[in-house]
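[Solved] Which block belongs to which protein?

Original post:
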Amino acid sequence: DGDTCINAVEYFDGNRFVPAAFAQEYTSQPYLAQIGVTSGLHATLKPLITGSAAASNVGLAIIDGMADVKHVDLSRAVVSGVYSGRFKNPSNHGTHVMGAAGAALNGTGIVGGNPFVKLYSIPVFDDRGAWVPRDNGKLALDRAVSLAANVVNMS
């Protein structure tokens, strides 16, 4: 529009100028442009995520392999096991699913769909990838309900 102030621009990413206010989050996710997320869209969506008190009142249970709750983006997650099995090592898939849904908005790595959601990992696949429930996952679903999870993912 011709009124752009050059001081408000952090850098040019090859397609567009990225505003300084959003450069940290935007640059930490270099492939957002490939899926159509422009700095303008990012700027529009950021207040909806970060400014919503309701965002932190949602509980999400991931019923999968055990997520890596020591990961910097998932450190607020809680593992709540209900089945016996070998659960010494976190699952790449369970970690990936949990990260896509709720990775923290912390200036490093990715940002999940809701970076403030309460995260619960309820493992049903052990270290060998074996399905351990004998009850078709009923205990896992019961545990999700007891944790007050509003959303359950069983990918």
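(Second protein starts here: sequence line, then its structure tokens.)
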Amino acid sequence: GLQSIHEKSAILTNRGHDLNCFLTAIDKLAKTRLKICVHIINSLPNESKEEMVETAQLVGSLPIHAIKIHMLHVISDSVMGQQYLKQPFPVLSKEEYIDVVISQLEVLPANIIIQRLTGDQKTIFSSLRANLRPLTNWWMTCARRSIHSRVNSLT
């Protein structure tokens, strides 16, 4: 998975590979008949809205078929969870998350399938998770409007 194009986030999340490795893998996969889906994570520690949108822009320039967008999930017994419990870092509010995702959707090409806009796992941020759950219907309504708008602009 990608999560972020920013090296500082790859190191923080112990991703285990750099951006060039990811891009090489995408290049190789694009030469097959496989469908490619990329996961990105919003609200990684110390990433700005601009950096999150940059990640979506780069992903949108790749020969992929789909994207899954997630809010950061921090499990209490993970390394990051233990770090958060000792020294909390800021996470996006519901409103900030919506703003970031809308900005990301605006830079993604219309042909990329949006498979997910939020996750629903038990995390340290359970109150935020509960606040994001009702967004599913709202996201779908917005997506339908966006699709209709994109189709109309093509005709």
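Accepted answer:
You had them paired correctly. Confirming on the second one: Strands lie at 37-42, 66-71, 113-116.
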